[in-house]
């Protein structure tokens, strides 16, 4: 049985060196990223049997994405675009403060925009323990939104735990569109990841993080709400209990993928025990508190690595938590 | 007075190292290219006062293109696309034989496709000695074709020498479209650059290179026809005389921009003498034979440089011709 | 059903830049190599379902080897050494002539030396179409030789085609030891890869390549004998017929893994048609002549890539053969 | 009309990597620097029409300097030295503390030392809004000092605002020489940039920064005195008013050119409004307070870039000030 | 007369870039390290006439070690292993926190393990002012321990000051073995370097650093005990007087070799005055307090350099101490 | 006793990458070169006890030169210039043909120009077996010429074999000056290295290489004349016998230092047998023919290495000659 399935877009990230800008970099470091790609890669590195579903251009760059996933032990269910389709690219300049981060998102016309549910292997979702999609995926196109809804429906019917990572950036969608998407998807969702900013923008929820999480959970009947707040701190409300974790202190080399590593490690921890009573196959606990802690450690490790490098090892996480 | 104006698209070239592939390169070397950008850069390096006209996205990447031109002493007349417009990109793998060259052209949706003649400073073309466009530019979109025709018309009325570099690749356009474009533009053209392959594909001209060049010139009333053939050899028919030059032997580091360097140096040489009787301002001859020779030397130099590096120096050309 | 299983050792290759030496290189490029690792990686890239069996140290370097194989789509059946075990390393200087190639092989004490057949998943060999081992593997230790013999026996009993790549270097073993190993293994072997040098050193076979291949085949009852000779040319004797192929001309970036790419592509081609009458699942022929041709193309491609990069694509091979 | 003219020397900076020393660096990163070159480059990037005057050797390195300026949109008025003249070079080691910064200044015999006012296009200064020279330029040779005085005289007569950046390092000149130079130049100066250290060394001014600035302004009849103090904080006395700005916090990648970026941005801001009543052509205010603030932001940005990279964008400055 | 002789092993360090891991680094930076190699290199850079004794494999890597030492002005007395002997290697990943440092020590079977006292030039120790060995050297093999004891005996008889740097890591030896080694060697030792952790692990000494140092000195009759404690602070007890020094603040690029640089600078300072009454040949004091201070400065400098770069200059140390 | 002493200048070579130019290289590879430095480095690597005499600036760059020599096992006798003195630098662009090689020599004002014989340790020359100077050294300044003459005189009186490498480039000196220098030095010279071009320019010797060598030897009473001709071929006339060697074929990475490696290996071979009758201490012959052959092999090896890397190993030479 598959442990975790992610559905979403892959982006080729082209990163300028730290002391150069998009306008004068002579070299760009290349890597594959994407919220769900990152989450399943982290989960795979922690022992989960993971699958990633998407639509890609039939080009050396599209095939590079599949090789990237495969290289992290993740199986892929991909439909291929025709000759004209593109791979989304993002150019990244990540300078020290106060220069900070500048990105050029070059996604329009990407093969993923025309993803179509009937062409994807929905059976993989049916047989999985968990299924995960992040907000920006839904915002990519009408087809992307429809496919997400369709796969969430499959998950719901099959008893697959459905996870949704609600993020909100003006660049992705406006508040009304985000709200409508949430309304369509929330009935299927079991686990919600959300930030205070998204809760505020989409639902007008404001104030104490714990209360926000409680309110979202109660209002929507979620099994679990995980709310990242502050600078890496997180809390979860699950079974009416609140679990909290502080960010693991450390140095930031690259912020890319850090949140996704958190999500992936959270799921991998929860999964490890899905066939037992509170203890994972490897003897590690699988409760929500442990999942938060392992998520925070995974995020801290990913933060020390350049690009969307989120394939942290269980040994490295154990070392931090000891 | 401006010497040479080019109109066309700029492309961000992202090049994998020689022993890596698009699928596994960790770094891509970045540079700006484009047939007319290359030609005016070469001409500028050889002393011509040059201008480049185009449409670009209003982004750090679009501004990088302007900085690149400016950095080679070329003034720019650019209209800016809105937020969604892209910059065309090309991913290049250039391996040794038998692996050879693989490119991914990612141009659809680029800002240039919506270039519009009325927004460009046509006065620059009126006041220039020479105006140059290459075939692929016309093939980019209907607007690009219409703008080219409009600017050729301006050149023609103003007495500006109009230069067209007819290339033919299946990937750019089909034969019928290319033929139609030529029919629309040829009445304005004074100098034609053409390859035997293009002559064959577009006009069915076949056989001896000299005869092809003569035929094209006679049929269309061109002032000059320059025909590159073999592997870097070239000939020109001008005033019913034939001039020939052999390729300058040397090593190939990167083929990109080599032909454009030839075109740029040809124009720069011809221009140097536009205000004198057969001798340029710098004492160098300006006849067609010399222009061919300097074109071939510029091409050989560009061939030793990575990417679209075509800014060869007059001293380096002199050294080869001595 | 698994298509191809390889058994052997992995080596961490540390390569100095082309204009530096082992004594003054400031950086070493790192990669994983090994004759059977290379062969199964090539085969996997060409569509074969491949598995690699070995023994590795339980360290970040040992895990790197598994990640490398997995990253090329190859499943692994690995037993882990204890804390003290090492990963074999090879330091490589590959300078231009007359400086040439210098290597430091640092293999003694490697985990692989203590490989033990009962700990390996022999069932994988039973269920595979083909099983492959190269000569140097046998020469590594008594345990490695015994394990090879044991796995060949499993293959033989299960009807799995057994492939042996006999190489001979003084540094690996002496002639007597090599001869004894061959005597023990040949009864199980179906396909033999051999060089004229090895045939001479081990069997005293000398003279015309075709006659050598015939003699080896007749004497030992092999199904197929593939003899690489000259500088990349190869011939095969199969069903009493001789097939020949010339080396594909091209440039040499790195000789490492080139022969293994040949072997991997040969097997992948033969496999493609194992369930059909002379034509592979993808419509490509599967006869020995085609396997030789695709092997030679794969070798030529691998030769243009640094290190043990042997994961050539079927499209690239098709392009060469067209 | 030209906005800003700078006169001074260019230096080829050769910088060792951060974890290497001058004695063991295998590579040096190369770039062009110089106080006035830096100031006009920053000003040009912020929209000023800028010119740089100097004397250079007629060599590929001298021509590299012109290309550098041109590449940043700055026109050059350069006289060329003969064959023997050198380009000043500076070798830089910039290690973390406590290793810190070590430089080898290799300037003696440089072409600039023999700069001669009559050979420079003084008309450019006459037609400019502002003219700027930094102290070390004057200290380079008697000819450099005489040329500076001559150009200041031209500026004064033409009503061009004359700016002088008084710095003091023992390595450049002794206190008496500096004082004499100031006495000669101050009658022409309108805007003085000065540090507390220089004020102390050259004029014996000590104590409260505001009082120092007031005293210098009153004593010499300057229009504006800008005094950088503390670690990036600055104040200006202008029209008897005091304006102050705090350093923009951030990370230091390289200190080179940071002060010059401040000067360049100060001038560019003041210039933007030179043809209007208190508001620049781009709608930004042009008062001294705004000039200080934009100077501090430009300095903070330059600090995040390696070498003399001071070509910060107006957008980046706006982002900091928002 | 030789100033300082070190005896010990050399290791080839292969270091991944800061944002990569042992499992995915494409390049490893190579360098030679080893506690005594480092100490004599630092001492040599500070003017000491130094020699290093060891056993190495007769390979390009072994010869690289000799070239490294020679390149730092250190003479070598080396016996060569036969063909099979290895050079110890250490793979290093040094990531930011919380990822931190991971090493793979690959030392077993190294040529040094079979070092044999009679083959080393003991006369060099007899004629030296000081002789130094570090704890891990003794822990490498029985032969290494026996050779150390033998050379300490030579030193003792010749009146050469014998220095021992007692370190303790579980990975090197267990407490009992370390204690036995100390018991064997301490009778010969004049100067002991020790950490509170080692004092605790080996002798059960706990508590106040000064008391620990006093106790060790009194119990064993050492001339000097130097105890590094805290994070770079150190104290020495010598002639019943206590000398203390604080760590020099600064940035850490690489921790490797930092302690050895301290030891080397301590000895070099003490040595400088060995032929005078309290003042070195270069006019610098040679007392224990100065040796501590120069040791701390050398350590702080080494900390800013990548790898085992410990060849700090006397000028750099003077600059810190001023 | 010292085997070989060289006297001459050291230059810091700053080399652009192969596909970049002096005008656009972002990085320069740094290294130390110089004809005599190169010759003694090669000789030292082949076992000679070598010393290098020179004058250097007292700066991190000057000290880098000493470290470079020391790092190749060569002792140095250096006098130090004062603060203002420079180190000669050479900027090198070495592109493929037809771009070819461009250098900027920046030597004027270098510390070496003021070298003064009385400050150098002439005793080293007295006690040496061989003493070597190259032509460009003499051309550097009057002091350099006078010092050379003085040291040759010392060598002559002490019976030290004096070697002179006469090269001729217009850039170094004119023919009359070169001829005068030769007239002054030749009475002391025992071994002359010369090219046909130099023989022609300085002595008007033309025609057959063997005859040129004979004539020079007879006219000047040299012990040996070594004449490099063609493209790496060489001949020597010694004891009225002619010895010849062909260039060793191979690839050229960098031409720098290749001839010096020939000279160094020639001397090292001749030296090896200086205390025996025709056979060197290591059993290798020491005759002129062998010296030529080993010189040619050393040159071929140096040709495969970037920069002035001339420290070839005896093993590598043996491998070529076998």
Percentage beta strand of chain A? 15-25%
So, CATH architecture of chain A?
3-Layer(aba) Sandwich
CATH topology of chain A: UDP-N-acetylmuramoyl-L-alanine:D-glutamate ligase
Shape of chain A: globular
Instruction: Count the E strands of chain A.
Output: 13
> Could you spell the SSE succession of chain A in H and E letters?
EEEHEHEEEHEHHEHEHHEEEHHH
Mean pLDDT of chain A: 93
Tally of structural domains of chain A: 1
Biggest contact: A-B, 28 and 28 residues
**Rg of chain A, nearest Å:** 18 Å
Classify the oligomer. Answer: homohexamer
- Determine the N-to-C terminus distance of chain A: 31 Å
- Global structural class of chain A: alpha/beta
CATH superfamily of chain A: Ribokinase
Low-confidence stretches of chain A: none
Q: Helical proportion of chain A?
A: 25-40%
Strand order of the largest sheet of chain A: 5-4-1-8-9-10-11-12-13
- Our count of helices of chain A gives 11
CATH level-1 class of chain A: Alpha Beta
The main β sheet of chain A shows up as: 9 strands, mixed
Keywords (chains A, B, C, D, E, F): Kinase, Transferase
Family (chains A, B, C, D, E, F): Belongs to the carbohydrate kinase PfkB family.
GO molecular function, one term (chains A, B, C, D, E, F): kinase activity
Domain Carbohydrate kinase PfkB (chains A, B, C, D, E, F): 1-309
């Amino acid at each position: 049985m598959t442990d975790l399935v992610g559905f979403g877009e892959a982006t080729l990230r082209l990163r300028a060196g730290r002391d150069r800008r998009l306008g004068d970099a002579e070299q760009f470091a290349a890597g594959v990223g994407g919220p769900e790609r990152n989450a399943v890669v982290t989960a795979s590195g922690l022992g989960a049997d993971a699958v990633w579903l998407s639509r890609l251009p039939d080009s050396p760059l599209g095939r590079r994405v599949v090789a990237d996933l495969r290289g992290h032990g993740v199986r892929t269910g991909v439909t291929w675009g025709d000759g004209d389709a593109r791979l989304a690219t993002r150019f990244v300049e990540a300078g020290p403060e106060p220069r900070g981060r500048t990105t050029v998102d070059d996604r329009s016309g990407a093969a993923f925009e025309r993803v179509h549910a009937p062409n994807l292997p929905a059976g993989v979702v049916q047989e999985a323990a968990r299924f995960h999609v992040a907000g920006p995926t839904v915002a990519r196109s009408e087809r992307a939104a429809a496919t997400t809804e369709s796969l969430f429906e499959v998950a719901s019917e099959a008893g697959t735990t459905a996870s949704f990572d609600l993020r909100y950036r003006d660049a992705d969608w406006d508040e009304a569109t985000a709200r409508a998407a949430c309304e369509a998807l929330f009935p299927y969702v079991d686990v919600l990841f959300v930030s205070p900013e998204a809760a505020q923008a989409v639902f007008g929820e404001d104030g104490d993080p714990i209360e926000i999480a409680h309110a979202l959970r109660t209002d929507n009947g979620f099994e679990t709400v995980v709310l990242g707040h502050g600078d890496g701190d997180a809390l979860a409300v699950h079974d009416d209990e609140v679990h909290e974790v502080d960010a693991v202190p450390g140095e930031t080399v690259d912020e890319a993928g850090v949140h996704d590593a958190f999500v992936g490690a959270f799921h991998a921890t929860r999964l490890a025990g899905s066939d037992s009573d509170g203890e994972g196959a490897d003897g590690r606990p699988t409760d929500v508190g442990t999942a938060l802690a392992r998520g925070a450690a995974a995020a801290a490790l990913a933060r020390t690595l350049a690009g969307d490098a989120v394939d942290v090892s269980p040994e490295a996480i154990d070392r931090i938590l000891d």
